[in-house]
Amino acid sequence: MPKLEVLRLFLRKFGFLFFLIILMYVLLQLSSVKAGGMMSFAIDSLGALWMWGNCPQQTGAGEFCIANSSVPLPVWDFHGHTVVKVACGNEHVVAAVSAGETYTEGDLVCYAWGNNNHGQLGLGDKESRSRPVLISAFSEESSWEVYEIACGASHTAVLTNRKSFDQIESRCWTFGLGDKGQLGHGTTATICSPQPVDGLPTGSFLISLDCGLFHTTVVSSDGEVWCWGMERGLGLCPDASFSGVDAGDALYPIRVQSPETNGFKFLGPVQIACGAAHTVLVAGDGYRMWAWGRGRSGVLGRGKTTDSYIPCVVMWPPLGENFQEIHEDQAVASTSRVNDHTSTELEQKLSAASDELQFLRSKLTLMERYANILHISIFRKPLDEQTLPRSLQESPIFDIRKEFENILDAADTDELNRLEIFYRSMLSGVKDKLLKRRVQEMVQQCIISLSAGRQTPRDQ
Fold it and tell me: What transmembrane ranges does the database entry give (predicted)?
């Protein structure tokens, strides 16, 4: 049979199939991507999972191996299901997949495969898997519903919600390598099956989770952030010069203190994310960012490369229209740079303006932090436009004496007792005798003035 006829028969038989395949590739979009170790993953718009790089695969003899693939390969094991989320460590993968063909809320189950030398697959053993295996603790029959997954170098963390209409209860589960306390169970032991982290509050709903190489972090809906693992949950490497009281690893979750509220709650939390040895929190309903941990290469975004053991504000205020115009002018100038002295001069001005803006940002951050601390020290609540002192609302000058009189005037007996305790505690911390005497005189004058003001109506 001539070659042309063979080709015609082939196209007649399989042409429509090829057309569908080509159409699928043309219309197919990516919905999310994930990378970790030396491998990458993507989920397409149809809910299929693709992987490439040094991925877990199976040899011709059916044995586990890590093989290289320079092009994306589909994970056929999830055919007929929808992959919603994927996470990967150095050599292991965890995926949240719909129990049915399409994803509906509350029907996610969890699969894991790859290197399992530390039990990071959560399958109860240390046998590596070349293909996805269902984690029984998060199967369809489980009483817990999976909604967030994350992987460290050799450990895994999962957020679940109880399948109950009566109560909302979220739990964090960890398993795998625990030598740096990254599992949060109070030991450095390796755990091969999912175990809940008991040090977290049961009354809060955990909204975000992520893992660094050797640390784990979660954030709750009410703004509490919890970290555990290497270097008190900061994820810093052992060569970091930790300046805190305890430089050891955190075997239990530790609450991260918020400089913004002088407490343990960040306002308007949104999402947490971990790098190898640092953590970033998006808060303020998406308008604020905080970062802490190792600061090399400027990953903390605060204009420095030093480590930070407490959350610091990332210098990224929203760009105003004027600043946006400057960037647009900069882009136009860069395209006409050849033999154009005007563009060179503009670039120099833009560079100077950018340096000045960065300097002002750092100063603003410092002033904001100082003002917040000072306001909390005086009024015992965070600085907020809605709770500004009356003396500041009525005048551009802050009268501390008048404001103190207002506080005393509006205070009930319990509040006065608390103020007295605060005042005595403050005085005990003043070492300079002259300064202590002046503070006492000022408070005494305020009390006398206030007493006279209260007695005036009675006398009349």
Answer: 6-28
